[in-house]
Amino acid sequence: MSTLDIVNPKEAVAAAIPATTNNTVLSGSEAVLEAFIAEGVHTFFGYPGGAIMPIYDALYDYRDKLNHILVRHEQGGIHAAQGFARTSGEVGVVFATSGPGATNLVTGLADAMIDSNPLVCITGQVFAHLLGTDAFQETDVINITTPVTKWNYQVTDATEIPAVLAKAFYIARTGRPGPVLIDITKNAQIQKFDYEGYTPCNHIRSYRPYPKVRKEYVEQAAALINEAKRPFVLFGQGVILGKAEAEFKAFIEKAGIPSAWTIMGLSALPTDHPLNVGMLGMHGNYGPNVLTNECDVLIAIGMRFDDRVTGRLDKYAKQCKIIHLDIDPAEIDKNIKADVPVWGDCKETLPLLTQLVNKGNHKEWLQRFRDMQQQEVEAVIHDELNPTSEVLTMGEVLKVLNELTGGDAVIVTDVGQHQMIACRYAKFNQSKSNVTSGGLGTMGFALPAAVGAKFGAPERTVVAIAGDGGIQMTIQELGTIMQFNVGVKLIILNNQFLGMVRQWQQLFNDKRYSFVDITSPDFIAVAKGYHIEGQRVDARENLRTALKTMLDHDGAYVLEIMVGKENNVFPMVPQGCGVSEIRLK
Amino acid sequence: MQKQEYTITVYTENQVGLLNRIAIMFSRRKINIESLNTSPSEIDGIHRFTIVVNETEDVLRKLVRQIEKQVDILKAEFSTNEEVIYQELALYKVPTPVIAEKAKVERLLREYGARAVVIRMDYTVFETSGHREEINKLLAALEPYGLMEFVRSGRVAIIKASTGFHDKLKEFEQRERSEEVAENEYLGQQEKVFTM
Ligand SMILES: Cc1ncc(C[n+]2csc(CCOP(=O)(O)OP(=O)(O)O)c2C)c(N)n1
């Protein structure tokens, strides 16, 4: 059947045969949904519109097998899919219509691309014969999304759908994961074809997600580690994406190496672990930053030396040998030249390395981290967590939250000061518990991502933490929470400023506060408008009870906490400085 | 590090949209493409891109890894001019009356290895192939005779040390894991790595 045979959707719908599993004739739309079922997708997010209506029509008959969550904005949909992927470790799926629906996905695609989230996005597209004619809601989605997708593809013929979707899921979840977008023209959604079942993809000749592990590099790495006096491990999200938390722990424990995390790697190692020495980067901990420039062997595992982690490159880790474990060959030597590159999935390479390293403990070296931690406690942390002034600090909110959750909650953060404070102080007992927009720094991420995080880990407590600025970017997702009873706890840390930008203006622009003074609606009234419970807190004596009320509440809850207006996040590596030039105040 | 001319050779699946995916990797990094040629390769269904840029080796190495990482790209590598045999092709249109009267056409053709592709009463089209400098020399020689049109193709290049793509493809189809794209310079230099 030619793809242009059916251009009238009404005719096609009239001719449609209701889908049952025995049917071998399916529409393109049904084939999409069959692919989801075969791939184990149960929950996904989306928003309908003209060009994706045939898929939504098919979905009507799949309502008992597939749980579609209607979001309030496609950006919310894709962030939800990201949150889902992060807590479940599975592929997140989102639907959008052509034109504005598809362009609303772009921020989330960029976010998922840079943070390696496995996603499959399905966009509707105008009829194939209208491509390139400026048809209603036609945009060139493939070209718009090319730089922000791991792979994208336009389907114009339904017969391609099973194989293309199989490829999409395979590409999204293997190797270094990433977002895949499949744009399906309306005629292909309607077109009926002989369906021959779904075969999952496990090989594409032009795509080699798993590099060959080279023994000699592993041996060289082990030899370096065994000779080291001051080895230091930096770990990123690669450990989580590789599901290699146990292998990672076994490695650092055997070799006795202090380990620090990037915010994407956060929660891969429990906060309380004796070798966990804290956070790297601009607002990271004092010890890990300073001692990066004093170690003798640096072992980077599943992290990519982002500039927010390294500060000035020519002042970064010049004194040491560098071992870099990564699955993505393009990351090796990209920012930091590795002396020993260990290509491969760390789930595979770490055990090989663990076998070859000597048992060790670098007591004195570890003690240096502890000593610097003490200095940081005295200079920064103590006051942040136990303020004597009347106004609340973000840090003390996190401290009380930790006490109440015991470190078992999923924490989803937005972008800004509260994000840095939450990453610095939140306690984690298990992996896949910290969800944040690391690489792109997308304000508005937290609330929709928390919706997805909750569907990805329904049995867990999910707490979203946002600033008064960022929450106003995607606050409409309270509607999704209302409609689907999503038990997300939202904390708004309200400092009445775009805090992080204000902090920079204070420190680097002579306190010229240019358009960072942001007003907010009555957030609790807004929440109430969505039939969501909530309260505002501005006094210390009410903080614990309010947090407890929020956590104990059955269902969603919004807690607005008024915090100090001009508090700053410290320590800080100012832009253009080396990591050892980190400032405590 | 010094910028120099490099030839990038990319083997790809024959996929709509791939040209854009490749092109934006250069524009994103503000790297100017000197020339680009796409054609079939020795293997049915596999395309070959030949891209010439003027860049440092360091930038090239990173860029080529990013290109090879793309899903529909089978292989990407870069070579110096010494490592490839390369040619460009050019066409020159000149007015026949002028050229016939004033130029020693025969000498021109001989000297520059050119051919006359079309000779009409009103114009003549010459063709030559070679390195850029050779092509430019004929261009300069023809300019005084009222050159009407000039066009030069992108570079095509064969890598001297390459044995073609057949074996690699077999490896890929047999689900072999991939070797990393570039050797690490420290491998085999035990001494250098181990003196701390
Ligand atoms: C979409 C988007 N726009 C702008 C920015 C720049 N930006 C980074 S942090 C920040 C301020 C955030 O303010 P708020 O949400 O109130 O959080 P706070 O820093 O006060 O905790 C801004 C504007 C961004 N990261 N993302």
UniProtKB/TrEMBL annotation, chain A:
Domain Thiamine pyrophosphate enzyme central: 218-351
Swiss-Prot/TrEMBL catalytic activity: 2 pyruvate + H(+) = (2S)-2-acetolactate + CO2
SUPFAM superfamilies: DHS-like NAD/FAD-binding domain, Thiamin diphosphate-binding fold (THDP-binding)
Pathway(s) served: Amino-acid biosynthesis; L-valine biosynthesis; L-valine from pyruvate: step 1/4; Amino-acid biosynthesis; L-isoleucine biosynthesis; L-isoleucine from 2-oxobutanoate: step 1/4
Stored InterPro entries: Acetolactate_synth_lsu, AHAS_TPP, DHS-like_NAD/FAD-binding_dom, THDP-binding, Thiamin_PyroP_enz_cen_dom, Thiamin_PyroP_enz_TPP-bd_dom, TPP-bd_CS, TPP_enz
GO function terms (MF aspect): acetolactate synthase activity; flavin adenine dinucleotide binding; magnesium ion binding; thiamine pyrophosphate binding
GO cellular component, one term: acetolactate synthase complex
Domain Thiamine pyrophosphate enzyme N-terminal TPP-binding: 28-142
Keywords: Amino-acid biosynthesis, Branched-chain amino acid biosynthesis, Magnesium, Metal-binding, Thiamine pyrophosphate, Transferase
Highest taxon, organism lineage: Bacteria
Residue ranges that the Swiss-Prot or TrEMBL entry lists as coiled coil: none
A Pfam family of this chain: TPP_enzyme_N
Top EC class for this record: transferase
Cofactor binding, per record: Binds 1 thiamine pyrophosphate per subunit. Binds 1 Mg(2+) ion per subunit.
Key word Chaperone present: no
Stretches assigned to the Thiamine pyrophosphate enzyme TPP-binding domain: 414-561
Keyword Metal-binding: yes
Family assignment from sequence similarity: Belongs to the TPP enzyme family.
PANTHER family assigned to the protein according to its UniProt record, in alphabetical order: ACETOLACTATE SYNTHASE CATALYTIC SUBUNIT, MITOCHONDRIAL (PTHR18968:SF13), THIAMINE PYROPHOSPHATE ENZYMES (PTHR18968)
Descriptive protein name: Acetolactate synthase
Source organism: Filimonas zeae
Lineage start: Bacteria, Pseudomonadati, Bacteroidota, Chitinophagia, Chitinophagales
Gene name, Swiss-Prot/TrEMBL: ilvB
From TrEMBL, chain B:
Hydrolase listed as a keyword: no
Keyword annotations: Amino-acid biosynthesis, Branched-chain amino acid biosynthesis, Transferase
GO terms for cellular component: cytosol
Record's catalysed reaction(s): 2 pyruvate + H(+) = (2S)-2-acetolactate + CO2
Domain ACT stretches: 7-81
Entry EC number(s): 2.2.1.6
Pathway this chain belongs to: Amino-acid biosynthesis; L-isoleucine biosynthesis; L-isoleucine from 2-oxobutanoate: step 1/4; Amino-acid biosynthesis; L-valine biosynthesis; L-valine from pyruvate: step 1/4
UniProt entry tagged with the keyword Amino-acid biosynthesis: yes
A Gene Ontology BP annotation from the UniProt entry: isoleucine biosynthetic process
InterPro entries linked to this entry: Acetalactate_synth_ssu, Acetolactate_synth/TF_NikR_C, Acetolactate_synth_ssu_C, ACT-like_dom_sf, ACT_dom, AHAS_ACT, AHAS_small-like_ACT
Recorded superkingdom: Bacteria
Gene Ontology MF annotations: acetolactate synthase activity; acetolactate synthase regulator activity
Function: Catalyzes the conversion of 2 pyruvate molecules into acetolactate in the first common step of the biosynthetic pathway of the branched-amino acids such as leucine, isoleucine, and valine.
Subunit structure: Dimer of large and small chains.
Stated family: Belongs to the acetolactate synthase small subunit family.
Record-given protein name: Acetolactate synthase small subunit
Lineage: Bacteria, Pseudomonadati, Bacteroidota, Chitinophagia, Chitinophagales
